[in-house]
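Throughout this chapter, every protein is written as a compact record of paired, labelled lines. An example of such a record is reproduced below:
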Amino acid sequence: MTSALQVFMLPDLGEGLTEAELINWLVAVGDEVRVDQPIAEVETAKSVVEVPSPYAGTVAELHGEPGQTLDVGKPLISVAPVGPAVAGAGADDAAPAPSTAEEPVVEAAAANAYREEEKAGSGNVLIGYGTPGGAGQVRRTRAPRRAFSVAEPAGAPTVETPEVDLSLLRTRVPGKLGAVISPLVRRMAREHGVDLGELNGSGESGLIMRRDVEAAISTPDVAPSPVVEPRPVREPRPTVTEAQTGTDSRTGLPISARTPVKGVRKVVAANMTRSRQEIPEATVWVDVDATALVELRAGLKKADSHTAPGLLAFIARFVTAGLKRFPELNTRIEATADGAQEIVSFDGVNLGFAAQTDRGLTVPSIRNAEKLSARELDREIRRLTAVVREGKGTPEQLGSGTFTLNNYGVFGVDGSAAIINHPEVAILGVGRIMDKPWVVNGELAVRKVTELTLTFDHRVCDGGTAAGFLRFVADAIENPNSVLADI
């Protein structure tokens, strides 16, 4: 008889969300899929993520249409096993787990396992969303032991398999041996050529965590990344629904359109609301003569236009130096188990910067930015901007910042009272650089002037600390050569 369908539930994907929007199917009903093959693209708040299949077989059903919002833990795709030849596709793939009448129970446990593994170390993944990395204890329950029977061809005797402990699903994916659960971890390993079979997991029961793959990537003898197969081109999807006919009762005006608040806009709205509700913020600002910095960059660009850092990279360098002197602004406030609060300080700076994309505002972060030169910061800013504009920002890139730099001057505005990027405690804004009258050595002159605005959490520091940091960055912009020589 035909084996039972294997139903893959939409996992949490390590971003602590409860839903995701289906962007595009990468397979169709009737297609044969292998373990770890991307089957769909979903948008989870700030990034578009490819979801790999934990099963090998033939696609029997796609649970959803592009543009539809799916709940985490609900069916995403059903796969029909077609025999050992398909299930064993790939040298690293083991035989699939037996199909049983308890498959929905198994899949529910697997979906929970995805979430548990990612919560163990994901950190606050996206702006205002995500899981509090390392906070709290993950609760696990052990299901009762059950005996399952493997589906056999008609007329064949039923063979009982040994008892299967559902708690073991924490350390294996149905259809593939190995202590890996998270599709993001497997995708990271695949893209960087890391052999999961050679890794010893640092998680419970030998579970391979994201940090294990990152450690393997950082070693010098890692094999080069394999060539990634081209993906189907995504069709543009409408962002505004057709207007319902009728008149607005409050204004008396005809309704022209209704736009659902979802995806990036939904996350931004939630984060901004949380920031306003939880953070007692204050703002300080100062006008800065940036003439010397503009001239410095112009000279470097004239000497070598390909390697000259952008102005934002120089300011980022000054910001990281300033945070070393005023570390209170590079912190986070967390609630303790007894309901109290504590200020968490960091040995290093993950500098976030605001980047506008077609999906909305994202804030990728440069890890350990204090160790980078202006040229290295410039390369990272350009690289990460390209990544998030393609919708491929990872949770680490989008949710690991400790301080945010916002260059709203590119939009032609002078200043802004920015909202702090929760759970950080400060954000520095840079306005446009424009010609203004300025007094230099008692004489009136035309100078390149910009406005710096610092919004900070008054719980972690007072105005003196905030003003000291802002003045440090302003002085560095006005005298870049002397400051760069010191840092």
